[in-house]
Design brief:
Strand order of the largest sheet: 1-2-5-4-3-6
Order of helices and strands: EEHEEEHEEHEEEEEEE
CATH topology of the largest domain: SH3 type barrels
Number of helices: 3
CATH architecture of the largest domain: Roll
Strand content: 35-45%
Number of strands: 14
CATH superfamily of the largest domain: PRC-barrel domain
Low-confidence stretches: 177-186, 199-206
Oligomer: single chain
Radius of gyration: 20 Å
Largest sheet: 6 strands, antiparallel, barrel
Mean pLDDT: 81
Length: 210
Amino acid sequence: MPARTQVRVGRLARAHGLKGAIKIELYTDDPGRRFVPGARFALQVPTASKWHGKSIELLELRVYNGSPVAFFEGVTDRTEAESLVKAVLWVEHDPTELPVEPDAWYVHQLAGLEVWRDDERIGRVVRVDPMPAQDMLIVDVAGTEIMVPFVKAIVPEVDLRAGRLTVTPPPGLFEELDSAPAEQAAQPAAPEAEVADDDASDASASPDRG
């Protein structure tokens, strides 16, 4: 059997109403598959939380005013729901399963990849950090962590089978330059490569976009 891993699929945002419902931030492109009655999620919470080390079962996912709202087994009032706020939901994931969209990857697939530039290995992806504009690859280069925007203009190729990705960084991203070009031509905004937020994630570990 192939090894399995966990991927991040959601975050409990805030209590909704008085009967234990909780609004969810979804980290998956396929909530109809991930959030079905009976689905069980591992909880990422602080060690001081009563929910630490526990999992939770979904009873129902509804949509109120465009926002997904979940009901869980054993969470029957607002006080109990509030004790789960900010908890991150994780599910078991088969690593051989591919994201739904092309040119998309789960966070756990990117972490650990070798980073190559001009046929030279320069570092390794240690994690993926989600940012408002785009996800950032955190690359370890000789013991220093460098943030690399995960956009196609900078990361044109990801080869999971080879365990590597290729970068074409702008001057100065991986090294300090003695002098910068006096003028740079204006460039259109680069299209983003997609992280399957299970994890992704990963995420971060990994968010799920599957």
